[in-house]
From TrEMBL:
Pfam families: AraC_binding (PF02311), HTH_18 (PF12833). This is AraC family transcriptional regulator. One of its GO terms (molecular function) is sequence-specific DNA binding. Keywords: DNA-binding, Transcription, Transcription regulation. SMART domains: HTH_ARAC. The keyword Transcription regulation applies. Residues 164-262 form the HTH araC/xylS-type domain.
Amino acid sequence: METEVLYSGYSYHDKPMYPDEWIGNDYYLLRLQTEGNCRICLDGRSERLVPGDLLFLRPEETYRLVVEENEEGKAGSGDYYVICKGAWIDRWASRGDKPKRAHIQADGSVLDIWKRIVLERRRIGENNGELVDYLLRALCLTLERAFKQANGGKSDNVRGVAAHRMKRYIEEHATQTFAVDEVAASVRLSPSRAAKLFKEAFGETIVKYAIRVRLSIAIERMQYSGLTLEQIAESCGFGSYPYFYRCFMKRFGVSPREYREEASPIA
DNA sequence: AAGCTTCCCCGTAGACTCCC
DNA sequence: GGGAGTCTACGGGGAAGCTT
């Protein structure tokens, strides 16, 4: 196995905690703050962690976690964690410049993988080590993408995050018909502002990117399904076949049928 | 007959500018 | 920086014709 998860889970502290000891071991730690807040002492500095703050510590790196009471005298801090080791993690950790701490957009895709790792680890005796191995790699790569997006230019941070969230919205909704208004609403911006941000971030318009995603889905279905081209057009988010045909011709220079005849392994 | 292609027209997206 | 308004290009869909 290329990786090994030693501990994983969700922890919640609802009482103040001021430990003296420093936490650290021979393994890697991934910790994502999901609820409330706490204070972390790391590299001689004390910083507050809020939801979305990710810690990535290498073997031998130590930290101290403090959960304090708020103004109302209540404490609350929730986080997901994974403690792991392995050759793959070693290679991944040494690749690029990974910060010890980053604020990420902790959306469903990150938490879904994290929860799945926790769940699979509870399934004792199911010989699922390989599955956990790949889930951990998926988690690391998803987190890496998240903090790359978060670090995409400090001054453009908020705009960059909005652009990436729109991109993800398009990818998730590409097979449905949606309007630019809806994409803009998903990041609480006006349509004109959203369109401008997206173009600045990715160099193409929202509609053109949506068409590109839809065409890539259509290509797969043309090659590996027995659906008619009209069915494929509708299932890929193109409102009508004629529109799909025109987009396809414009992009590839051949008609969908010609493309399918040349490319399909089941033709 | 079913599936595919093309034409045409209306509505909307995107670029641009102005204003707050 | 961000919203509102305007104008233009093109996206989107209906319908008719063509091909297999």
